[in-house]
Amino acid sequence: MSFFVERKGASKNIAYIAILVAIICAFSIVSAFLPLSAIFIIVFIPLISTLAVEYCEKKYAWLFLISALIATFVSTIYNYMDTLFYIYPGIISGFFYGYLRKRNFPITVVVFLSALISLGLNYLSLPLIQFVYQIDMIAFSLELFALKDVPNILYIVPAFIFSLSLGEITISHLLIEMTNKKFSYGEENEMKLEKYYPFVSLLFSSLTIALAFLYPPIGYLFLVMAFFFAASSDYYLLPKGNKIHYIILVVLLITMVFLFAFLYKKMPKQTGILLISLFLFANDFAILPIGLQLVGKEKEHGQKEK
């Protein structure tokens, strides 16, 4: 029987869950013994959770989540630190992705929210790790990868964790799409929201510049979020544009090159790179008219139906 097919009946669902939980436990044990392996192993943890939601019946998917959390706790109780910081966020974010995906939420929103949940769980685990093990997990991870002495490295930590979470969930999405072409969840709702993505990217780009002066670590995080929605805007809306939109985009990008050079030295120390958001501004403003046209057409269509 194929590994990537829906399970029907208690015996098939439970057997499938047992295999998935065993795989996660194996990964957890390896990461506990070899801390450097965790950065690679966690890429696959959300995928395993997603498989449980995708191919198991609803009640058994929840059984998987509970079983996976308990089993990883038991199997790594001698070194629970990595499980808290790496494994649990991956299990829960992958489950959340699969759950929302099957309920036809727009894929862009599902990927973003799943990565955001993973980031939140990473940071929620820090006080518990500090309390139990007297270890600063962020400092420990930076030292593990020989990054502790890099100047202002802490500025980009939230952005890096969120980017890693986005990568994990995106890989899960791509593999699920490849293995399960029978279903195309969320496409209709994606079409309803795609025209608003330039506005979201514009919002995060604006916050990036503002936070460069107030709190750079969150500025870098918002820069990654702006990139994500800008890329989504390009993917969905640029093909619907015309030559004029492309010309506007090129002109704005060239303008931003000069503006970037002018403003770079005026930015607070170690935050000049946040001016990359200027190029996202250019991208968003060039694509906004396409989104507005789609909004107008939608309103016209709605009035005709009335």
Polypeptide structure, described:
The protein has 306 residues and is mainly alpha-helical. It has 2 domains: 1-185, no CATH class; 191-306. 76% of the residues lie in helices and 0% in strands. α12 runs antiparallel to α13 (277-305). The termini are far apart.
Give the helices and strands, then pairings.
Layout: H1 10-33, H2 38-41, H3 45-55, H4 58-75, H5 81-102, H6 107-133, H7 137-144, H8 157-179, H9 187-193, H10 197-214, H11 216-237, H12 243-263, H13 277-305
Helix pairs in contact: 1-3, 1-4, 1-5, 3-4, 3-5, 3-8, 4-5, 5-6, 5-8, 6-8, 8-11, 10-11, 10-13, 11-13, 12-13
Computed structural class: mainly alpha
Low-confidence stretches: none
Taken in chain order, the helices and strands follow as HHHHHHHHHHHHH
What's the N-to-C terminus distance? 51 Å
Compute the number of structural domains.
2
Mean pLDDT: 87
Percent of sequence in beta strands = under 5%
* Quantity of strands, as a count: 0
Portion in helices: over 70%
Number of helices in the DSSP assignment: 13
Q: Quick one: biggest sheet?
A: none
Shape: flat
Structural Rg: 22 Å
